[in-house]
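Moderator note: this is an archived Q&A kept for reference. The question asked for a predicted structure of one protein chain; the sequence and the answer are reproduced below.
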Amino acid sequence: MIRNLLLIAVGICLLAFGVERKPTVYLIGDSTVRNSNEQYWGWGSLLSDFLDTARISVANHAMAGRSTRTFRKEGRWDKVDSLLKKGDYLLIQFGHNEGSKPDTSKQGYRGVLPGIGKDSVVLDWGNGNHETVRSYGENLRRFVRAAKEKGVTPVILSMIPRNQWDDKGHVKRADKDFGLWAQQIAKEEQVAFVDLNAITANKYDQLGADKVKKKYFPGDHTHTNYDGAMENAASVVEGLQQIKHPLANYIR
């Protein structure tokens, strides 16, 4: 009882003296944002290394293997949404787990409809359990709008590039599908867009395929090691600086 009264008194004093609440930057996404931090790392786990954490907190709620569809379906978005407060930030990066045709199979469990349309399909999981599956863009749109309703500033990021190369020696971009759709939703919703895919891909092009593989990708073509995650975190920071985003004011 006494402890609660003290907390209330402290809160009143802070308000009275105009002390601002320390904002939090929330991250949602997949394994490229948050991973096991053993062999593979996500850039979200290292973002705080670039920020003044005395002035802003980082809360990484990304989860490996999730798409925009399953992140919401499993209740992960509801948890983040319950934590958001006015003045916070929300960084959104999905795209690696969206590509399968949405159905009730193991392969289709994560899939979404391509594009940014508002069309949907209804899946029958049996026992009266139905699921409405929407497009990648519509899922992003809903994250953004829910955040804005709470006075939170959303930032959409294109997915990090995979270690896949074309026959001209360039990293394959996501500028014709998920990266493009992410950019289109950001423009439509009038929120910031960081082209993380392009920023990091340009760095990879400079290094070349052999060096990128050796330096950043210990296993598959999607997940990076610590150094790769650090490079992607640096790309996020560079992107925020390029667009002169308010979050750039917290960079150390």
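Archived answer notes: Helices lie at 2-16, 68-73, 76-83, 136-149, 178-189, 196-207, 209-216, 226-242.
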